[in-house]
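Milestone M4 deliverable, item 7.
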Amino acid sequence: MTKADIISEISTKTGIEKVDVQETVEAFFKVIKTSMISGENVYVRGFGSFVVKKRAQKTARNISKNTAIIIPEHFVPSFKPAKVFVDKVKSNSKIVSVEA
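Output delivered:
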């Protein structure tokens, strides 16, 4: 499902025009992005948490030059689904697993 699909479905279910729904969805994502960029975590009860995780400094290898490089500590965005959400997905029998 894409963002356009989400906007279309919300518009259909609520009767609100697609343009208004799109502005709202864009504003929602913008708030999450700016909050995480400033170091704040975002918690949505029953859905999950958008958290900023710290990655420690580590040594990696450049295999083409056979040299070691240092990757400095940095922060990455992460999503942790709520337990209620995970349980509902696990109990859903409609999901078909795709095996490689």
